Amino acid sequence: CHHVTGECSCPPGWTGHDCKHPCSSGRWGQGCANSCACAGGDGGCDPATGTCSCQPGFTGQHCQ
Fold it and tell me: Which residues form the EGF-like domain (predicted)?
């Protein structure tokens, strides 16, 4: 927490007043500021790293 404001500084992939909520679907990173760049069936991505989670039948860095 910030020593003056008391505001939580959440690790990548987490958000909310107490950092207990993962980023919503399609978002990732510090402050959930990044959009997932995954294609091919939209398996989504890891909320901390942005690594795509491919649906069956899709492969590649972006499930293309």
Answer: 1-20
Q: Which domains does the chain have, with CATH numbers?
A: 1-63 (2.170.300.10)
Nearest to 19 by CA among 27, 5, 11: 11
CA distances from 39 to 8, 15, 23, 49 (A): 33, 24, 19, 16
Residue 23's nearest CA partner among 45, 1, 51 is 45
Q: Which pLDDT tens digit goes with each residue over 10-64?
A: 899 999 888 899 998 889 999 899 998 888 655 688 999 999 988 888 888 888 8
Nearest-CA neighbor of 31 among 60, 8, 2, 64? 8
Specify the pLDDT at position 12.
93
